[in-house]
Write a structure and sequence with these properties.
This protein is of the alpha+beta class. 53% of the residues lie in helices and 15% in strands. The chain has helices at residues 4-52, 65-68, 74-77, 103-112, 135-145, and strands spanning 61-64, 86-89, 95-98, 121-125, 128-132. It has a three-stranded antiparallel beta sheet with strand order 1-2-3, with helices on both faces. The protein has a two-stranded antiparallel ribbon with strand order 4-5. Helix 1 crosses helix 4 (103-112). The longest helix is centred in the first third of the chain and has 49 residues, at 4-52.
Length: 146
């Protein structure tokens, strides 16, 4: 009987250690997702400012952060964004931000843009997160990113 106490104690300590590591890993994922979502919101805001202050191009055009940040507020101009994020604008003036986000960030974005609210639809198409006024607008935004 007394021989089992050290085994039980070791098993308990090992379980506690593994549980604590799992929690810290989950917390790190949540922090990274929050950071990624903050960058996403900043990218969207800067792109919106850029497209409001520039005429639509004559052909479908792709814009990287190096172009968009010129119209961003001074505090954002020096920010760095993921190199695979870009925006596309069509000659009719419609535009889409083509951003790839991790699963946790997409889940958090879905909380910011709930699908049951009229006037907004959040879709993930081919690893690109798009937001539109409705399903058709979201699909059109996804098409711009192709």
């Amino acid at each position: 009987m007394w021989l089992l106490i050290p085994v039980i104690l070791v098993a308990y300590l090992l379980t506690a250690y593994l549980d604590s590591r799992g929690d810290s890993g989950a917390a790190e994922i949540r922090v990274r997702a929050s950071e990624e979502l903050r960058h996403y919101k900043a990218f969207m805001a800067a792109a919106d400012l850029y497209f409001k202050s520039h005429d639509a191009p004559s052909v479908r055009t792709r814009y990287g952060w190096q172009d968009i940040r010129l119209s961003a507020p001074p505090g954002l101009q020096g920010a760095s964004m993921r190199p695979d994020w870009y925006a596309v604008r069509a000659p009719d003036g419609t535009w889409a931000a083509c951003t790839q986000l991790g699963e946790e960030a997409v889940a958090r974005a879905a909380m910011l843009f709930p699908t049951d609210v009229p006037g907004q639809t959040l879709k993930r198409v081919a690893d690109v997160l798009v937001i539109g006024a409705d399903d058709a607008a979201a699909a059109a935004a996804a098409d711009l990113c192709k």
